[in-house]
Write a structure and sequence with these properties.
Elements (H helix, E strand, L loop, with lengths): L15 H55 L34 E5 L15 E7 L2 E6 L4 E3 L6 E16 L17 E15 L6 E9 L4 E3 L5
Antiparallel strand pairs: 1-2, 2-3, 3-4, 5-6, 6-7, 6-8
Length: 227
């Protein structure tokens, strides 16, 4: 018995040309999506590296600024004040470098004595330096430790620039004291401009620079009023 054929029910497939065109369009869409995904992943990775690099540099700059700000602290600063009865004592912690030019290293001192002994002990010597593309911190005599992680970032610049200004205090003397006379009382104000540059080891194109300005709290005084 012959089957009944329904008009228009013939099955039709895609031709080879139609399959190739569809495949080409699908590949274009997939390639575009893949390129977009790759670009987003690369941008996200760069943002993560930039954020980590900036955080590390800010932390290092804050630690350097904290110690520079404390430079010259003396537990018995009153002993350095001149009076007619008691001669003034020199601040044993006053040594500070750099003192006149920009440098990639700094050394400083400040007192950590519970009772001031007027002597710079081994644990009262501090400093910073750039070595092997890492910033190192000195915590006591000869004790250098890494401040930045050399496995994550390479420090390419570490510059500490001192800035000083002198204020004449001779006007407060009972007897006249010319301002140009260096033996008259004067106070030296010291501040530092700090600049740290680095790039991420995972991507050398990710670079950042931080700047900070530090005002030393313990101003150095010199001179005395005429008798």
């Amino acid at each position: 018995m012959k089957g009944i054929r329904i008009p228009g029910s013939e099955a039709r497939g895609f031709t080879l040309v139609e399959l190739l065109v569809g495949l080409a369009l699908a590949l274009l869409v997939i390639a575009g999506g893949g390129a977009l995904l790759t670009s987003q992943i690369r941008e996200h990775r760069a943002l993560v590296l930039e954020a980590r690099l900036m955080q590390d540099l800010r932390t290092a700059a804050d630690l350097v600024a904290r110690d520079l700000r404390r430079a010259g602290y003396w537990g018995d600063a009153g002993a350095g004040v001149w009076s007619a009865a008691v001669p003034a004592r020199a601040n044993p912690y006053a040594a500070l470098a750099p003192d006149d030019a920009a440098s990639d290293a700094a050394s400083l001192r400040y007192s950590r004595d519970a009772i001031e002994n007027h002597v710079v002990d081994g644990n009262e010597q501090f400093g910073f330096r750039l070595r092997n593309r890492a910033i190192e911190i000195q915590l006591g005599s000869g004790n250098w430790q890494a401040l930045t992680d050399a496995t994550l970032l390479a420090v390419t610049g570490f510059v500490i620039t001192p800035q000083t200004a002198t204020i004449a205090l001779g006007a407060g003397c009972r007897a006249p004291c010319p301002t140009e006379d260096e033996s008259c009382p004067r106070q030296q104000l010291t501040s530092f401009a700090l600049e740290i540059s680095a790039h991420a080891l995972a991507d050398a194109a990710v670079t950042r620079t931080v700047h900070a300005r530090v005002r030393v709290r313990n101003d150095a005084s010199s001179g005395a009023c005429p008798a």
